[in-house]
Amino acid sequence: MPGTTALQPLPDSMRARRAVILDCDPGTDDAIALWLAMASPEVDLRLITVSGGNAGLGRTVDNACAVVGLAGAVVPLVPGAERPLLGGFRGDGAVHGADGLAGIGLPPGPPPVRAVAADAIRAVLREARPGSVTLVGIAPVTNLALALATEPALADRVAAAVLMAGAWGEGNWTPSAEFNAASDPEALAILLAAGIPVTLVTLELTAQALVTPARIAALRAAGGGACLRAACDIMAAVPPSRRMGGEGHPLHDPCAVAWLVRPELFHAAPAHASVDTGPGPARGRTHIDRWGRGGGAPNVTLAEALDADGFFALLGERLARLP
């Protein structure tokens, strides 16, 4: 399992590129995660799929298109599920605003591909070699679950899934559950049971990626173009988190991309994870056994600790490469 290391990071030219399908629901932190992926040569971004989540599907698709357009990237972007596998849609306007980007307007981007996300995911996987595609899920994982549940044989094409989902302690959407896991726990259960290597980036990890006024000022000082300026404006517009004592807010989703780009920034360990799909106040809670107390074999890599200064330095250096 990846962990803390004293080795110097490899230069970009020596790092292997990963073919990536990135599933998102922009969302303030999704926008920054997308820019980090598009600015990183380690990431061969084959497909972006979008679901409803932080805002409704129409808004998240428009936001994703705008983010891609501002970066000048050419990546297929496909709309997907507008609601979870069971139940109805619930957005998170309190954090992300009614428009999903905290009121920071971006120019419209190129239109999405006329297709369905689950179909597009399966098409990419069918053309891939076994164990060659990494799935990055920074939204409710409905699209990824639909793709794998309807053609389970394609799981052998997946190298790994990196999911920003869950918590081993308190939730941020309900007292028990993190937003992405709570939004579609059945979909998360499908991913955990799909037989693919899963890395979980939970609230405990993302709390260490704390956006503060000082860190935003340092990012602005990095220079860069419209993407970095927009990222700083978005971060500045997100309200401070009460969970963080009002000192700032966690930058959740870019942590999942950073795991691919700079794994040496993280400490991780094996764990067993399951998700509560029942009714009631525990719905969406991720039960994470870090010490083998429940007897279940490890089925995830759990990202536990982050070099936060290194993470924000990476963010500034990479986003400064974009237009």
Write a structural description.
There is one protein chain. This protein is 33% helix and 18% strand. The protein is built from twelve helices and eleven strands. It has helices spanning 28-38, 57-71, 93-96, 117-126, 142-150, 179-183, 185-192, 203-206, 213-221, 226-237, 254-261, 308-319; strands at 18-24, 43-50, 77-79, 133-137, 158-164, 198-201, 210-211, 249-250, 266-275, 286-289, 300-306. The strands form two sheets. A nine-stranded mixed sheet has the order 3-2-1-4-5-6-11-9-10, with helices on both faces. Strands 7-8 form a two-stranded antiparallel sheet. The radius of gyration is 18 Å and the shape is globular. The two termini are 35 Å apart.
Present the secondary structure layout.
Blueprint: E1 18-24, H1 28-38, E2 43-50, H2 57-71, E3 77-79, H3 93-96, H4 117-126, E4 133-137, H5 142-150, E5 158-164, H6 179-183, H7 185-192, E6 198-201, H8 203-206, E7 210-211, H9 213-221, H10 226-237, E8 249-250, H11 254-261, E9 266-275, E10 286-289, E11 300-306, H12 308-319
Parallel strand pairs: 1-2, 1-4, 2-3, 4-5, 5-6, 6-11
Antiparallel strand pairs: 7-8, 9-10, 9-11
Low-confidence stretches: 1-10
How many separate helices?
Answer: 12
> Quaternary arrangement of the chains shown?
single chain
**CATH fold naming:** Inosine-uridine Nucleoside N-ribohydrolase, Chain A
Q: Per DSSP, what share of the residues sits in E-state strands of 2 or more residues?
A: 15-25%
In round numbers, the mean pLDDT is: 93
Shape by Cα distribution? globular
Could you spell the SSE succession in H and E letters? EHEHEHHEHEHHEHEHHEHEEEH
Structural category is alpha/beta
